Amino acid sequence: MGIGKSKTDPCLLSLSLSKNHSVDTSQKPHKSDCKISEEISLHGGEDVACSNSAELPTGEQEGADGVEGFPEEEAEEEVFLKFVILHAEEDTDEALRVQNLLQNDFGIKPGIIFAEMPCGRQHLQNLDDAVNGSAWTILLLTENFLRDTWCKFQFYTSLMNSVNRQHKYNSVIPMRPLNNPLPREKTPFALRTINALEEESRGFPTQVERIFQESVYQIQQAIWKETRNLVQRQLIA
């Protein structure tokens, strides 16, 4: 991307240089020039192009090869995240603000919001990767959250995942942010049974420290790595 092939014909360039050289040194063509012209007429342009590329210095040949095809980028090693924030599409900016708050003010990182998940994949695949690829799932409870059917599916799926997987117990964290929080009376019953993070509460910093414990993260990370290694061994076998 951003680098295109030059359309200059190497044969023409070689001939042009040869002509200029002969004019500068002598008005009469040298025997070597005659041999070159004869070889050109006998073998054709394709062979000349090959011979010219073979005469290039090593550095220039490597550069030319780089234009032909870029080396494949090494796959980035996947990281087990501290948290993922599930949110309504309208609350992307608020989700980013909460993400920065947790990472910068409390040092809980790395984290991600659902809008940052890779594009071009199915939502269900992204949801599975987000929930199982992080230690905690934060549900951003705003007025917009319950208006979105997809958000309802997200929180039900997250809750069921925390129930069915022992190491995911207590990993779903409802949170009422400062901006446009969902009133308690509108909160679904399933979420009322879980203590929610209240950003406007004076005890918010204490809640954060009590929930996001490094020891819990390390346990989940170890299980995540073990599961991934098992799947990879099965694929190889």
UniProtKB/TrEMBL annotation:
**Could you tell me which InterPro entries the record lists for this protein?**
TCAM1/2, TIR_dom, Toll_tir_struct_dom_sf
Describe, as the record does, how this protein assembles with itself and its partners.
Answer: Homodimer. Interacts with TLR4, TICAM1, IRF3 and IRF7 in response to LPS. Interacts with IL1R1, IL1RAP, IRAK2, IRAK3 and TRAF6. Interacts with protein kinase-inactive mutants of IRAK1 and IRAK4. Isoform 1 interacts with isoform 2; the interaction occurs in late endosomes and disrupts the interaction between isoform 1 and TICAM1. Interacts with MYD88; the interaction decreases after IL-18 stimulation in a time-dependent manner. Interacts with IL18R1 and IL18RAP. Interacts with TLR2. Interacts with RAB11FIP2.
SUPFAM superfamilies associated with the record? Toll/Interleukin receptor TIR domain
UniProt-listed Pfam families? TIR_2
The superkingdom of the source organism is Eukaryota
Q: Name one GO molecular function term.
A: signaling adaptor activity
What Gene Ontology terms describe where this protein resides (cellular component)? early endosome; endoplasmic reticulum; endosome membrane; Golgi apparatus; late endosome; phagocytic cup
Q: Which biological process terms from the Gene Ontology are attached to this UniProt entry? A: cellular response to lipopolysaccharide; inflammatory response; innate immune response; phagocytosis; positive regulation of canonical NF-kappaB signal transduction; positive regulation of chemokine (C-C motif) ligand 5 production; positive regulation of interleukin-18-mediated signaling pathway; positive regulation of toll-like receptor 4 signaling pathway
**Gene name on record?**
TICAM2
Disordered: where is this region? Answer: 47-67
Question: Where's the TIR domain?
Answer: 75-231
Q: Which organism is it from?
A: Catagonus wagneri (Chacoan peccary)
Cited function: Functions as a sorting adapter in different signaling pathways to facilitate downstream signaling leading to type I interferon induction. In TLR4 signaling, physically bridges TLR4 and TICAM1 and functionally transmits signal to TICAM1 in early endosomes after endocytosis of TLR4. In TLR2 signaling, physically bridges TLR2 and MYD88 and is required for the TLR2-dependent movement of MYD88 to endosomes following ligand engagement. Involved in IL-18 signaling and is proposed to function as a sorting adapter for MYD88 in IL-18 signaling during adaptive immune response.
Q: What is this protein called?
A: TIR domain-containing adapter molecule 2
Signal sequence interval, chain numbering: none
List UniProt keywords, sorted A-Z: Cell membrane, Cell projection, Cytoplasm, Endoplasmic reticulum, Endosome, Golgi apparatus, Immunity, Inflammatory response, Innate immunity, Lipoprotein, Membrane, Myristate, Phosphoprotein
Q: Does the keyword Oxidoreductase apply?
A: no
Write down the Gene3D superfamilies for this protein, in alphabetical order: Toll/interleukin-1 receptor homology (TIR) domain (3.40.50.10140)
Location of the protein in the cell: Cell membrane; Cell projection, Phagocytic cup; Cytoplasm; Early endosome
**Keyword Phosphoprotein belongs to the record:** yes
